[in-house]
Amino acid sequence: MSAITRFNKFLAMRITSMVSTMWCAYIFAAIALISLPVAIKSGDVIVIVSWVAQTFLQLVLLSIIMVGQNAQSQSVDQKITETHTASLGEFELAKEARSIANLELKELKVISAEVHQLLRDLESKIQKS
Fold first, then answer.
1. Structural domain tally of the chain?
2. Where are the bilayer-spanning segments (predicted)?
3. pTM higher than 0.90, yes or no?
């Protein structure tokens, strides 16, 4: 990765982290409100609607939407972490259950061999009698 690419990513991350705050939304709202009296004095509906849509909403909602997305992202990250932790716990339980099942299977094989041996011994005794 080139130095320019690294710098561009660094700068983009810094700007994004600054713009995606409620403080930035408040600053943008204050900046937008500076031009509100001029828009109202014009008395032109198009100018007022244009101020609302292009100045206020675009400036203020940009930061608010980014704050909301960050909050949602953190919530999703937390759920992913919790799910991952639970999955690892279940995996460990499954490994333990499999280990226990293997031990029980070995014991059943021994018991089965002993039962077969007893049956053969019994059959042998019956045949001799």
1. 1
2. 21-40, 46-67
3. no
